[in-house]
Amino acid sequence: MISKKIILTGSFGVGKTSLFNRFIENKFDEKYMTTIGVKVNKKSVFIEGNEVALLLWDIAGEISQDKVPTSYFLGAAGVVYVFDLSRPLTFQNIVSDLTYLKSILPYSVVRVVGNKKDLLTEDQISRLETEFPIKWHALTSAKTGENVEDLFLNLATEMI
User: Fold this and answer.
1) CB count in 10 Å sphere of residue 67
2) Which end of the chain, C or N, has fewer beta carbons within 10 A?
3) In this predicted model, what pLDDT tens digit does every residue of 111-144 receive, in sequence order?
4) CA torsion, points 10, 36, 105, 129, in degrees to nearest 10?
C-alpha cells in the first residue's frame, strides 16, 4: 500500500472541512464549525491497480507562518488550496499563499480549488474565470458533492 499526505488549506470559512467530510464520509453539514488546530483522517482509494491511503489533514484557517505551524505541512505530497467562489476576500492572498506553499513544499502537487460552486451561476463563474489572478484546477461543491471525488482521485493519480 502507498500512503500519501494531503493538506487542505486556505482562508477561514471556505469549506475545507466540508470537502474533507464529503470525501471521507460522503456527508455534508449546513452548520459552520471552525476547525481548531488540525483534523486528520484517512481514506483508501485504488489508482491504477494500487491501493493508496490518502492521509488528509484539514488545517485550521490561514496558512501564514504565524497562524499555522510549518510542521503541519511537512511530508505533504499534495496540497488542496481552497477558496470560496462566492467570497472574493478569500482569494486576495492566493498568489502570496501559493508562493509560500511552494517554498516549504517544492515537490508537492498543489491544486487550487474553488468551492461552493452551487452558490454561483455559470455566468458568474465565467466572469470570475476571466478576472481571477491564476488558473484554478477544479470547481467543487461540498454541499452537492460535485467534483469532490474527482478532485481527490485526480490528485492521488498525479501524486503516484
Assistant:
1) 11
2) N
3) 999 999 999 999 999 999 888 888 999 999 999 9
4) -10
Q: How far apart are CA 87 and CA 83, in angstroms?
A: 8
Helices (H), 49-121: 94-104
Confirm if 7 and 59 have CB atoms less than 8 A apart: yes
- CA dihedral over 50, 77, 10, 60, signed as positive or negative: positive
Question: Is there a contact between 43 and 24 (Cβ–Cβ < 8 Å)?
Answer: yes
pTM of the model: 0.92
What torsion, rounded to 10 degrees, do the Cα atoms 144, 60, 77, 150 define?
A: 0
Residues in the chain: 160
From the CB of residue 74, how many other CB atoms can be counted at a distance below 10 Å? 11
